[in-house]
Amino acid sequence: MPLIKSQEAAARLARTIISDIALYNRDKISSGLKNDNIFELLDKELKEGLALYRSRLSPEMDAKNGYYNRAIVDILIKRNSNIDSDIW
Length: 88
Prior knowledge:
mainly alpha
């Protein structure tokens, strides 16, 4: 499989990976937002996702993981803003 070289494809991959993490970890996300420890609860999953993301990109693409980090905020955080939390 060829490495990703376009910004659009890198952003799409990041969103896909984070969407999968969100799909399979709903309880952790809910608990993490309620208790303000979402990154600790999803540490393993987010690191595995980042490793997959990096493995699919050409070396010059997204060196700061901006698309991946944006996907975390958009999908894990913003989409779950309905969860009661002190962080809002």
